[in-house]
Amino acid sequence: MTATVNPNGLLAGKVTVVTGASRGIGEAIAYRYAQEGAKVVVSARTLDDGDHPLAGSINSVVQRIRAAGGAAHAVQADLSSAGDRERLIAESVAAFGPVDILVNNAAVTFFIPTAQFPEKRYKLMEEVQVYGPLHLTQLVLDSMRARKTGWIVNVSSHAALHPALDSGGGPGTIYGMCKAALERFTTGLAAEVYADNVAINAISPGLVATPGVVFHKLITDDNKERVTPVEHMAEACLRLAYSPANEISGRITYADELIEEFTLEPAELLVPPVEV
Question: Could you report the per-residue pLDDT of 114-130, keeping only the tens digit for each?
Fold first, then answer.
């Protein structure tokens, strides 16, 4: 079976912004939404192939979507910059109209023990993974509330879970702190806008073989049996992007949980997953 775009699919005509979408999970979400008829704005720092050591770019993602008959637009943006965040939403609205779905997926991560963690790198992580999603949400929220419709999907991580005392903690404490903040933001905002039918959810992917995960050698002989196909995360994120708030909102959930809860069958994507 070959992946295709259904212009009359579950997200037909919906305007979607996906951050961190040049590769990996963001790329997969962009494809899955486009395949259901969404107009997808693909954003990241990497504009063209070759601009980054890892494969993937927003222009290549847009080209694949358009070649399959979908609607997509690339906006290069550094989400540590308030000006770039504002420009991203402005260009999205100019290209397709008011934003219906926002996926806060962009991340920058440094795996450094807490005692040695530099202030500069902490501030960058917090800006991209905590304040960035808050600011982007503020930029789209008034329109969503006025139209009584909208979906915001915050991509979290199992790193937000509290570790066992005898685990050693690992070098991801600061990363986990940022994701835990994102999850608390999710539940609080979901309660604030519940009456306006704006759904806010956070989802963690599990261990997915993205280019970044492979590059950082996070998949080992000990955990390779637990690798989750990226199609599962894309399908779960789709499920969070069309139900009204009174059905699904305020969730801190996981891709495998949603796959099981709703008996989802992950669709083939426009490109194959990364090989481990």
Answer: 999 999 999 999 999 99
